[in-house]
Specification:
- This protein is of the alpha+beta class.
- The chain folds into two domains: 64 residues, Arc Repressor Mutant, subunit A (Orthogonal Bundle), CATH 1.10.10.10; 47 residues, Dna Ligase, domain 1 (2-Layer Sandwich).
- Helix content is 29%, strand content 20%.
- It has a three-stranded mixed sheet with strand order 4-3-5, with no helix packed on it.
- Strand 3 and strand 4 form a beta hairpin.
- Helix 1 packs across helix 2.
- The chain is globular and about 55 Å long.
- The two termini are 33 Å apart.
- The structure holds zinc ion (ZN) (2 copies).
């Protein structure tokens, strides 16, 4: 097994593989570096723990958020997704064909320049919509 630390010490990717429900959920989130829906987490988690159900997933996700290890991403037309906490500022791409969300690294927006005079920008969100590489062909 390789070393799956993706430059994110806050997260749990260093955990030993085991079969607990919590570990299964954590492994799913570690395995794919893009925001995931509850449905995706449930489907993939069931590959290692068959007894996993939706309320268990919700309970564990809430716990991981409370622990500061997971963040919610709200994507218009897709709802709430979950991604690792502690990432640098980035945005998201939503594929309308396969209905998956992806991470767009970095940011080209100077929000102070586009905001109207007198408005003090504290944060911003950008969502890109279209087709991912596997759907574009
Ligand atoms: Zn796609
Ligand atoms: Zn940005």
């Amino acid at each position: 097994m390789g070393d799956p630390i993706l430059g994110n010490q806050l997260f749990f990717c260093t955990m030993k593989r085991n079969t607990s429900q919590r570990a299964a959920i954590e492994q799913v989130i570690c395995a794919d570096d893009r925001p995931l829906s509850v449905k995706e987490i449930l489907e993939r988690g069931r590959a290692s723990v068959k007894s996993l159900n939706q309320s268990t997933v919700y309970r564990n996700l809430k716990q991981l958020i409370d622990d500061g290890r997971l963040s919610q991403v709200r994507i218009p037309s897709l709802g709430v997704l979950y991604e690792k906490s502690g990432k640098t500022h980035h945005h998201h791409f939503y594929c309308r064909s396969c209905r998956r969300a992806f991470e767009v690294p970095g940011c080209a927006l100077d929000s102070r320049r586009i905001s109207a005079k007198g408005f003090n920008v504290e944060e911003h969100e950008i969502f890109l919509f279209g087709k991912c590489p596997s759907c574009a062909n």
